[in-house]
Amino acid sequence: MNTAANSVFQSMRRRLALWYAIVTAILLIVFATGFYLYVQTTLIDRIDDTIDHVAEVIERSLIRSNLIDLESDFSHNFSANAQAIDADHIDIDWFAPSGEILWTTNSNVESLQPREKGILQPVYRTVHLAEIEPLRQMTEPIVINGKLLGYLRIRHPWFEVTKPIKQLFLDLAIGTTLMVFVVLLCGWWLAGIAMEPVRESYQRLKQFTADASHELRNPIAVIQTNVQVALADPDPAIPRSQLETIERITRRLGRLIEDLLFLARHDGGSNNHRQDICNLSQILSEVMEEQAAIAQQKQIDLELMLPSSDLSVVGDRDRLGRLFTNLVSNAIAYTPTGGKVQVATQPLTSQNQVQIQVHDTGIGIPETELSQIFERFYRYQSSKNSKPSSKSKSANPATSGSGLGLAIAQAIAESHQGKIKADSKVGQGTTFTVSLPMSCIHF
Question: Which phi-psi region, left, alpha or beta, contains residue 194 (left: φ > 0; alpha: ψ -120 to 50)?
Fold first, then answer.
């Protein structure tokens, strides 16, 4: 398999593996995010449950005290448990209905916020105090027998949430990254297995095309030779027009077989071309001379613009000639009468390349169709009529071209380590740009 075809399969394999890894990564991220939020919510609920339990114990204590000497009762009720409360890192503050602090287990007390006065339900929030770790805080109004006795505030350290959550985030990030990497490797391996039948089928198809084209060359040549002999010495019993039709069809079929064989060899990597120093200026001049008669019939102006010094490229002279013949003949075929076809060359010294542009004043191609014009047998059909009226891969629809002209041009350019692209505007014309490596030798 040649380098171009192998590159296509490798690109497909990479895309399959990448998509497999992306889908798996998305699923893993969704799962990890859900698990992270679940654990975070569970830890917060645990702290809130602890705060609720402490609040419930305090409320029961107040009820048992019969509402006598609240400050004394608080000291009495919590002095025995102060050590346990401190060990649990839980702080308790008791505020008067006016918001004044009455009792606390913490020397660094934050006053009751104005928005916390007059609340009817417990309010939970996370607070960040200067030089102190974040705290989970609950402020609750204490109402007994319809009378507001004050506000109870209970604080619990937030590190019991932040510490395990940070560790969980790190573990999930590392685990997900490693899993995506493993999935990418597995996807690459599975994509290779999946692509193998396609690769084998592609190889068999190329071999079949090459064999069929090769086997058809001889019978077509025999038919054409016999028809030409019959035309040279015509038989009155056989109409000459029929012989001419057969000769024209066999000639067209012969060109099609040659084109298919060329593309099959290109796909199979067996189309090694000669590596000679070619005078590009001379090749273009010869191509323009060959196409001059056809252009003259359609009253199309041919113009060749060459630099002051001849340019040279390394490659196969015949194939380069065929490349530009296909482009120029294609431009002539789809340029209306009285139009113009211009071929211009420009050396790109900084890139060590030479650029050749074939521009016509034809009807052009819609931008949506440009990506398909180099596909084999693709022919753009104009919406104005049923006949092909725009660029196609054939040289001329009037001669029922095979639709392989531009595909062959692209194959020749790529085999010379070059590139070809097309730019077009409907109603203004089309420009084909060929870039080829430039030889250091100048003629």
Answer: alpha
> So what's the pLDDT on residue 83?
43
Q: What are phi and psi of 236, to 5 degrees?
A: -55, -25
Token code pair at residue 259: 């084109």
Parallel, antiparallel or unpaired: strands 340-348 and 301-305:
parallel
Distance in angstroms (rounded) separating the CA atoms of residues 354 and 368: 28
Q: Which of 135, 163, 191 is the last residue of a domain?
A: 163
10 Å CB burial of residue 87 (0-12, 13-18, 19+) is: exposed
Hey, what's the torsion of the CAs at 318, 323, 325, 331, to 10 degrees?
A: 180
- Sign of the CA dihedral running 114, 119, 125, 129: positive
Indicate whether 158 and 281 sit together in one domain.
Answer: no
- Contact, 154 vs 137, CB < 8 A? yes
Q: For 31-53, b where at least 16 C-beta lie within 10 A, e where not — what string?
A: ebeeebeebbeebbeebeebbee
SS3 content of the chain, % helix, strand, coil (to 5): 55, 20, 25
* Segments of the chain scoring below 70 in pLDDT: 1-5, 61-88, 107-111, 129-132, 205-218, 224, 234-240, 242-243, 247-248, 252, 254-257, 259-261, 264-274, 379-402, 439-443
From 163, 193, 219, the end of a domain falls on: 163
Give residue 161's Cα distance to chain centre. 41
Please say whether the beta carbons of 390 and 365 come within 8 A: yes
- Convert the pLDDT of each residue in 307-325 to its tens digit: 877 788 888 888 888 889 8
Q: What phi and psi, each to the nearest 5 degrees, are found at residue 234?
A: -65, 145
The residues, any chain, with a CB within 8 Å of residue 143's CB and separated by 6 or more, are: 149
Q: How many domains does the chain have?
A: 2
Query: Amino acid identity of 218?
Result: N
The parent domain of residue 18 ranges over 3-163
- Separation CA 114–CA 350 (nearest Å): 73
pTM: 0.47
Residue with tokens 């022919």: 379
The one-character DSSP state at 300 is P
Which pLDDT belongs to residue 70? 47
